[in-house]
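Exam revision sheet. Question 4 asks you to relate a sequence to its structure. Input first:
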Amino acid sequence: MTTATAIVAGHGISFRRSLHLPNPPGKPGSASFSVARPHAHYGRLAVPATSPSPRPRRSISSESPTADTVEDEEEPPVTSETNEEDDVDPLAEVCYLDPDADAEGIREWEVDFCSRPILDARGKKVWELVVCDATLSLQFTRFFPNTSINSVTLRDALASVASSLGVPLPDRARFFRSQMQTIISRACNELGVKAVPSRRCVSLLLWLEERYETVYSRHPGFQQGTKPLLTLDNPFASNLPDNLFGDKWAFVQLPFSDVREEVELLERRYAFGAGLDLDLLGFELDETTLVPGVAVESSRARPLAAWMNGLEICSMEVDTGRANLVLSAGVSTRYVYAGYQKSAATTQEAEAWEAAKKACGGLHFLAIQENLNSDSCVGFWLLLDLPPPPV
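Answer key, structure tokens:
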């Protein structure tokens, strides 16, 4: 298949993709695409606890051993990190600020307020507030009885995070449970904080996974097999609003080294977009590993990127059954973003794109350009598929 190259941000980074087919003006439609599988594997989620406060990391490496290799290896020695994990007090609450952090610079928090698989002395579920920032420099937890779950309790608790740690209240607080939107929004509004429904709470989601293993499951009131009280919504995809349509789109791929560079240059190069802390997330892919993504062309690229910037985009996926591309945003919004002509060939290549994303640990991206062959990129979003938290 004939291939074309598009330069990103004018600094030598090129998308590798196939030539697109013409689409109807105003709406991205069918596209011919070709995605090479990255030469990488990803390891299991490894979230060590560290002192004085745990910092979750996903261990994703292009040099992860195969299953056969693992069987032949000896058991790893017990490290101090493992001992620290064993020493975690499941009854203790966390109130931590990294002494090297710029307290005034922490302007966004990630917040969860929900029940846990733990019963108190009355046999009732315990609730917990968990607060952190994207870098986990700020961490705070507090347990509550189920009799005091309201916006006033949450407002006072959020205020105590700032007073206890000596930091200002944030400008924004992200949360990922749609069922808690009323309580969280009301509490934040009373504090002058903007509540933002978003699944881009990556650090919070990973920390909850770590806390399930090191805290909740070791609590004397832990209830094995308890399902989360407030599960994440995954509704059917709805039609995309007219103002979010582009003109053309294509599946593309970018070497991991260039993805890193895009993230580092994001704030200086682009007016619109969002990155991820790849070091915190533990991505150790080979520099040449090809990360899959989607590039969108629009004659009004800047307004389109501005509208997309307000969506809290979290991921994109292919629905091979319906031959379309689905965009997930906020906490429970899913849009049919584009479609393609279904055939055996396009289905196979769509599955290859999803497989490439899985091989990269769920990492992928969305880029908006004025022209798919241009040397600039108006918006760039680094995205990540994450499983729902166990609580």
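Marking note for examiners. The CA atoms of residues 23 and 29 lie 5 Å apart.
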